[in-house]
């Protein structure tokens, strides 16, 4: 137990700082690391400075950091995910540059290994998950006619631990090293014998804490969908997005525990010298592989199902048609959710189990293509004879439809164990999963971002730059990843920082060019954001329904007030808002104004964010006293929070009346615009009724 | 969120306190949480089962377990579930606060007795060389059984907090609802213990 014998600062010392590496043995690889570390430090200092300069701490504290409002929490999730996305993408670029420059290269093997480990970890856990959770948080309660999620403070806590884990990953750029064991962190390589440094510990704690946040989120969303639906909102009247959210939340509840267990056991092996997954004394690393993928496979559906939901909303809205085959879409969603638990073993076809087992899991894997196919046809049928508008979200959706099918097909190929033996651990696999993750998840996220942005902030995003970005994404994705199918078939292993066979080089150069196009897409995204803010006077949609929306979230002003709806609308059918507009029920004055009760602000989330961050850092660096203090602080903070008495505040009816009358007056004097004009300044968020 | 108005609760210090969330929803949420926790335990059980033989020459179940103590632990825990149940009935029928506190304190004491015996057992195992560092089997044992113990510890802490809250906040709806969740949790831990007893201890006795 020599693990306990560290001094006050644990394992921390001067050499832990990233800059010391550069000073001691200057090289391009170290320079890249130091620059990354400096960016983190400078960005932090810069942001703190700006916040102070513009004196926004007060607002930030009151309106955001302590807020329990699901919409604001959602927006904070998304802001966080975007920061992480930038980092993750840049890492992808650096890796592509390295492989394009190989065999000379410019990175150390270890540095490259850290890059693919952080990149994978970040993309899955800190971009895709929080972005989706953010969109769900924002939109789902509105769509089902709820005032908030079931447990607003829990929601805050989930955000808190997700963000602090993300910050921990940022800190790993400056102090110490991240894991080199990939996003799946397979032992025994990540065990103490092979990886004695702090890298895997960074991974473990980031995963454990953010994973706990995701589990709690799953519980929260499930209960919200079951228990908080407004009057008349039967399960089968919910927008499809809510169905996918329900299924994804159930996946969170069932799939996250195996990951937490795997990571914690790995932690026990590393910290306390247990033998769960070690080579010696009866450890069994196949247990890890099973646990990890028992989580890992459902995880990809946890990501893609809500994205399917977003696409469903987008197809239906911009085709101005109800979703075709609603029930079949619901059933397909449920089938996928269930099947996703039956296929985990396809991730280790080559690790020595019997052919019979491989075949069974191969077939189970291929079966998922069936409900997915149902969905694709339903989406196409939704567009059929619709009055399609090529808005940015719709462009993403159509790009998704085409590219995702290709990715899915390569998945069916991989589901065949005999083929998998050939291409296992080659770039073919890398091409496959990026082919589903980028069109499936990332495009879904970006479509949702463009779709709901006006609802959240009251003005539209610039459509031109949005489309430019979308097309660049398509091109960039294809140029980057299609060559990898070829390189993979030729046998180029994944995760190679260098290679001797120069046949691969042309592929890598093309892929690098693709990555540069992706960079252009990212830059366009940033430009879109800036341009949209600049033009926001001309693109305001205060009435709140810029796209002739069909579900309830469009039935309120934009930005949405804290209480969501003055009066929870009664639902009589699917496409509730379209229905209301048709029957003249939209924009109606409530008969009476009643006080609304809402959860008060709570500092708990912020406290937990800071303290859990300190706790993780202390654990990574073996600073035991600090870990103890912060763990106790967390305990005390949570217990103290249960002693709070007045947890709600009241928005008085008079206030509601004032707000609503102002909104209705605005509706009155606004011009209703037809769908064709939705991108013009005349669109103030009041859609003309065109059935 | 139908605010539920609080019925008169005897002995409540603050009778006006009302819960602001549908109790149904809160309890349902807790069930969902337990479902997730059940998966957590289930997975750890599965790992344990795969590692039963992996003793790497170290001591196995036959050498390590003290069945007398285990029987006592089981009795303590099962009885505590009963007393928690009695407290629930008291809450339901709105009997006196003192009676409620009495049964909660008994439950707490039984829970702590269980923990004490469990720790004593672990110490005994360690003396016979049964430490988690010794083998995969023992790692799996110490991954599973103390996980349950940790949950019990947490439950005890929860009870202490609730007892304090009965005094500071009164036995209002909020505290009652918290107690109902605690009781669910406590029964759930009983269930897990029965699993541990059957699989780990009884299984070890039969096959070890
Ligand atoms: C378009 C920009 C992207 C580029 C250029 C890129 C590039 C890369 C590269 C070069 C690797 C390492 C492959 C290898 O080790 O041989 C990788 C791995 C990976 N990427 Fe990406 N990627 C991108 C986007 C994404 C996105 C959007 C996701 C997920 C939502 C993602 C998830 C992953 C995962 C999970 C790994 C595996 C990491 C590991 O091997 O442990 N990537 N990516
Ligand atoms: Cu899989």
Topology, element by element:
The complex is a heterodimer of chains A (691) and B (208).
Chain A: H1 18-24, H2 28-53, H3 57-65, H4 70-101, H5 109-143, H6 152-171, H7 199-227, H8 240-272, H9 285-319, H10 326-339, H11 355-367, H12 369-383, H13 392-414, H14 417-423, H15 427-457, H16 463-489, H17 505-534, H18 576-582, E1 596-599, H19 604-620, H20 624-641, E2 648-651, H21 653-669
Antiparallel strand pairs in A: 1-2
Helix pairs in contact in A: 1-2, 4-5, 4-6, 4-17, 5-6, 5-7, 5-9, 5-15, 6-7, 6-19, 7-8, 7-19, 8-9, 8-10, 9-15, 10-12, 13-15, 13-16, 15-16, 16-17, 19-20
Chain B: H1 23-50, H2 61-64, H3 67-92, H4 97-127, H5 136-169, H6 173-207
Notes on the structure:
- With 691 residues, chain A is mainly alpha-helical.
- Chain A is 64% helix and 1% strand.
- Chain A has helices at residues 18-24, 28-53, 57-65, 70-101, 109-143, 152-171, 199-227, 240-272, 285-319, 326-339, 355-367, 369-383, 392-414, 417-423, 427-457, 463-489, 505-534, 576-582, 604-620, 624-641, 653-669; strands at residues 596-599, 648-651.
- In chain A, strands 1-2 form a two-stranded antiparallel sheet.
- Chain A is globular and about 75 Å long.
- Chain A starts with 17 loop residues before the first helix and ends in a 22-residue tail after the last helix.
- Chain B is mostly helical.
- Chain B is 76% helix and 0% strand.
- Chain B has helices at residues 23-50, 61-64, 67-92, 97-127, 136-169, 173-207.
- In chain B, helix 1 packs antiparallel against helix 5 and helix 5 (136-169) packs antiparallel against helix 6.
- Chain B is elongated.
- Mean pLDDT of chain B is 89; it is low at 1-17.
């Amino acid at each position: 137990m020599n693990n306990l014998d560290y001094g006050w600062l644990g394992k921390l010392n001067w050499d832990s700082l990233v800059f010391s590496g550069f000073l001691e043995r200057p090289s391009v690889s170290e320079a890249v690391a130091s620059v990354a570390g400096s960016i983190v430090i400078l960005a932090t200092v810069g942001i703190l400075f700006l916040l102070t300069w513009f004196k926004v701490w007060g607002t930030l504290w009151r309106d955001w950091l302590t807020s329990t409002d699901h919409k604001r929490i959602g927006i904070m999730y998304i802001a966080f995910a975007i920061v992480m996305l930038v980092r993750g993408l840049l890492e992808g670029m650096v890796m592509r540059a390295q492989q394009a420059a190989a065999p000379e290269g410019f990175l150390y093997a270890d540095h490259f290994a850290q890059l693919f480990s952080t990149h994978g970890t970040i993309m899955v856990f800190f971009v895709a998950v929080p972005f989706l959770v953010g969109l769900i948080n924002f939109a789902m309660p509105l769509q089902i006619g709820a005032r908030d999620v079931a447990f607003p403070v829990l929601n805050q806590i989930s955000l808190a631990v997700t963000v602090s884990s993300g910050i921990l990953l940022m800190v790993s750029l400056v102090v110490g090293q991240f894991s080199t064991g990939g996003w799946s962190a397979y032992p025994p390589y990540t065990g103490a014998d092979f990886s004695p440094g702090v890298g895997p510990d960074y991974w473990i704690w980031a995963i454990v804490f953010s994973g706990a946040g995701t589990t709690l989120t799953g519980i929260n969303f499930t209960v919200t969908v079951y228990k908080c639906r407004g009057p008349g909102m039967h399960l089968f009247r919910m927008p499809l997005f809510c169905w996918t959210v329900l299924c994804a939340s159930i996946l969170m509840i069932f799939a996250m525990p195996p990951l937490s267990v795997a990571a914690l056991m790995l932690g026990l092996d590393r910290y306390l010298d247990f033998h769960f997954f070690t080579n010696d004394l009866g450890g069994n690393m196949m247990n890890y592989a099973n646990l990890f993928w028992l989580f890992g496979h459902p995880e990809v559906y946890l990501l893609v199902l809500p994205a399917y939901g977003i696409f469903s909303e987008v197809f239906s809205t911009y085709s101005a048609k109800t979703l075709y085959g609603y029930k079949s879409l619901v059933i397909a969603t449920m089938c996928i959710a269930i099947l996703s638990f039956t296929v985990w073993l396809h991730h280790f076809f080559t690790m020595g189990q019997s052919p019979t087992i491989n075949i069974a899991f191969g077939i189970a894997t291929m079966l998922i293509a069936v409900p997915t196919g149902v969905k694709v046809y339903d989406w196409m049928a939704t567009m059929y004879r619709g009055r399609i508008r090529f808005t940015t979200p719709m462009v993403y959706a159509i790009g998704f439809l085409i590219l995702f099918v290709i990715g899915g097909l390569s998945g069916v190929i991989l589901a065949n164990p005999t083929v998998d033996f050939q291409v296992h651990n080659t770039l073919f696999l890398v091409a496959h999963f990026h082919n589903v993750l980028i069109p499936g998840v990332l495009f879904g996220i970006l479509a949702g971002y463009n779709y709901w942005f006006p609802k959240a902030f009251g003005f539209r995003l610039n459509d031109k730059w949005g489309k430019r970005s979308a097309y660049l994404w398509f091109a960039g994705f294809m140029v980057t990843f299609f060559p990898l199918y070829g390189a993979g078939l030729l046998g180029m292993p994944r995760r190679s920082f260098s290679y001797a066979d120069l046949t691969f080089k042309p592929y890598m150069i093309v892929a690098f060019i693709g990555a540069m196009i992706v960079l252009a897409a990212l830059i366009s995204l940033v430009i879109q954001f800036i341009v949209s803010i600049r033009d926001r006077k001309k693109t305001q949609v205060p009435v709140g329904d810029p796209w002739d929306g069909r579900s309830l979230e469009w039935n309120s002003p934009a930005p949405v007030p804290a209480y969501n709806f003055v009066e929870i609308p009664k639902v009589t059918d699917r496409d509730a808002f379209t229905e209301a507009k048709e029957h003249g029920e939209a924009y109606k004055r409530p008969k009476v104004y009643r006080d609304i009760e809402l959860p008060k602000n709570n500092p708990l989330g912020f406290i937990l964010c800071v303290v859990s961050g300190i706790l993780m850092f202390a654990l990574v660096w073996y600073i035991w006293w600090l870990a103890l203090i912060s763990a106790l602080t967390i305990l005390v903070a949570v217990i103290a929070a249960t002693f709070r008495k007045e947890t709600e505040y009241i928005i008085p009816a008079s206030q509601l009346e004032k707000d609503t009358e102002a909104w209705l007056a605005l509706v009155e004097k606004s011009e209703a615009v037809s769908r064709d004009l939705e991108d013009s300044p005349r669109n103030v968020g009041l859609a003309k009724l065109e059935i | 969120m139908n605010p539920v108005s609080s019925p008169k609760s005897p002995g409540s210090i603050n009778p006006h306190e009302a819960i602001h969330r549908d109790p149904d929803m809160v309890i349902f949420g807790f069930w969902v949480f337990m479902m997730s926790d059940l998966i957590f335990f289930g997975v750890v059980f599965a790992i344990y089962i795969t590692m039963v033989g992996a003793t790497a020459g170290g001591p196995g179940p036959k050498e390590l377990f003290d069945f007398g103590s285990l029987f006592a632990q089981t009795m303590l825990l099962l009885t505590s579930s009963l007393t928690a149940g009695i407290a629930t009935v008291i809450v339901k029928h709105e009997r006196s606060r003192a009676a409620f506190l009495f049964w909660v304190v008994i439950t707490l004491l039984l829970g702590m007795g269980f923990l004490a015996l469990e720790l004593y057992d672990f110490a005994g195992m360690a003396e016979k060389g049964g430490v988690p560092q010794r083998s995969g089997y023992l790692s799996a044992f110490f991954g599973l059984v103390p996980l349950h113990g940790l949950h019990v510890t947490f439950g005890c802490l929860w009870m202490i907090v609730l007892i304090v809250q009965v005094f500071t906040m009164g036995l209002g709806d909020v505290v009652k609802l918290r107690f109902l969740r605690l009781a669910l949790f406590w029964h759930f831990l009983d269930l897990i213990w029965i699993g541990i007893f059957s699989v780990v201890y009884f299984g070890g006795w039969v096959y070890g």
